Structures are given as C-alpha cells and as structure tokens.
Amino acid sequence: MDLKSSKHLVEAQNRASIFLDENGLDGTLARQYWLMLFDWTLTEYVQQLQKPVAIDLLEQYEVALKRLVKHEPIQYIVGYADFMNERFKVTPDTLIPREDTAGLIELAMNFLQNNPTSRVLDIGTGTGIIPIKLAKTFPAADISACDLSEAALKVAIENAESHNVEIYFVKSDLFNQLDSEAPFDVIISNPPYISENELSLMDESVKKFEPTLALFAEDEGLAIYQRIALEAHNYLNPNGLILLEIGFQQGEAVKAIFQSEYPDAEILIEKDLNSLDRYVKIQL
C-alpha cells in the first residue's frame, strides 16, 4: 500500500478500502477512520475528496491503517472515544467505553432524579465515564470513584478535568481505601466479568490490546460481584442502591449472589437495548 502517491483524497480512500478488505477488515470503514484520525467533520471530508492531500496526512493515515490490520482499536490509535455524545480520553490502560454502559448510567440517573444530593461511588472507574456523566447531570451529588489501576485513575482524572467536574478519585481495591463511616447512597460498578474460558470468543482487538485487569475475573467471571456483595454492607446506607453491569448470561447468578447477602432486598435484572440481560439492580 502506497497512499503517498495518491493524487486526491478519493484515490487514497479507495486504496485504503482495498487494503482493509484484503486484510480481513471492513473496507467501508476507511472513511470513518480518516474522520476519527484527523477529527474532520463529514462536510470537511466531502469538500476535500477531489483535492490533493498533504503528504504528512497520508503518511499518518497509512501508519494508522497498518496498526488497524494488526487489530489495534482505532480509539487507542487516536487517543479518544466518543460516548453518549461526549469525548473521553482513552489509553491502553483503560477499557474502551461501550454503549451498554450508557444503560447503567441511565439507571443511576433515574435514582438521582429524585435524590440529587446523594453520595455515589463508582467501583472500577476506568476512564471515569460513569462518575463524569453523573456529575455533569447532577452537580449537587457527592461522587467518588475508585480503581485498582493507578494508570487508569490518571486518565479518569484528566477526563474529569477536561469536563470540568469535581470527583473524588482514590486508588482502592474495591472498598479497602474508603471510609465506612461515610457510607454511600448508590454504589455503581461495571467490573471485570469475563471468565478465562471465554477468551476464545473475544475479538482479537480486545484480547491483544485492552487491559486484562479490567476484563477478567475468577469464578466464571463472578468473583468481583461476590466481593462487592460481601463488602458493601459497611459502605451502603440503609435503603441504598447497588447498580451493576453484567455479562448477558450472568443475570441469575449475580442475582443469587446478592439475594444471599441481602435477603430483604428487591433485586431486578434489567435488559439492554438488544433485550439481553445486562444490569442488576439491588434496592435495599
């Protein structure tokens, strides 16, 4: 592939599309990759299609395409991901935000509509998308977020600063660095929930590039849910709420874990936009 000899952008795009197809990727995404790499609008792109392109742009694009065919996610190449109509920094130390997590945030927002000054904890915050979205919508809420990865926390802090919200971030293995004398009204988490035996089912881009610490959990992916269930007693107010994102086959197992620890709680399994089990809601 030699994009630098392309006379116009449309020619470079045609070559890029063929290169992607030949390497087992979707060639129709060539345009989207260009837009993301150079942060162009579709209007800018269309206006430039029949015009010559700067050599340095073609060189950058060619390098990005060669990384893409090695299954590196475009979000890591460009350094950002768009989520719920906003932009967040991402690095290989953080998971790339998925749209499924928007449903988890919406469940929290439903609670905060009637309880806007609540104390909220996000466990395993990663890029910080959950607490940032909540803080922007409910500025009176007292929001904390923790993660075991110091590198991920640095990214979350940068994202919070760029979105102009105040969140208390702490490096913590679940609750171990938190104060049990200042309990929360809402505990929310999208924890690692993939079991090791599911590795073969995952995309190459996920297996090769996304952080394993944020993906995998022992006990068939249930280990973190078990720990949250055991430890949350001391950090949750009476009548508090726990909201969890889950694997689509884990609903009943996660419900049973929390029903054992909180026999009087109302526990519901909620579905995502694809009608798959995706969230568990535990109302004490």
Automatic annotation (TrEMBL):
GO terms assigned for molecular function: nucleic acid binding; peptide chain release factor N(5)-glutamine methyltransferase activity
All copies of domain Methyltransferase small, residue ranges: 108-198
Record's catalysed reaction(s): L-glutaminyl-[peptide chain release factor] + S-adenosyl-L-methionine = N(5)-methyl-L-glutaminyl-[peptide chain release factor] + S-adenosyl-L-homocysteine + H(+)
EC number: 2.1.1.297
Pfam family, one: PrmC_N
Gene3D superfamilies the UniProt entry points to: DNA helicase RuvA subunit, C-terminal domain, Vaccinia Virus protein VP39
Residues in Release factor glutamine methyltransferase N-terminal domain copies: 11-79
Alphabetic keyword roster: Methyltransferase, S-adenosyl-L-methionine, Transferase
Family matches, as InterPro entries: DNA_methylase_N6_adenine_CS, HemK-like, N5-glutamine_MTase, PrmC_N, RF_methyltr_PrmC, SAM-dependent_MTases_sf, Small_mtfrase_dom
The keyword S-adenosyl-L-methionine is annotated on this UniProt entry: yes
NCBIfam families: hemK_fam, RF_mod_PrmC
Name listed for the protein in its UniProt record: peptide chain release factor N(5)-glutamine methyltransferase
Phylogenetic placement of the source organism: Bacteria, Bacillati, Bacillota, Bacilli, Lactobacillales
Gene: prmC
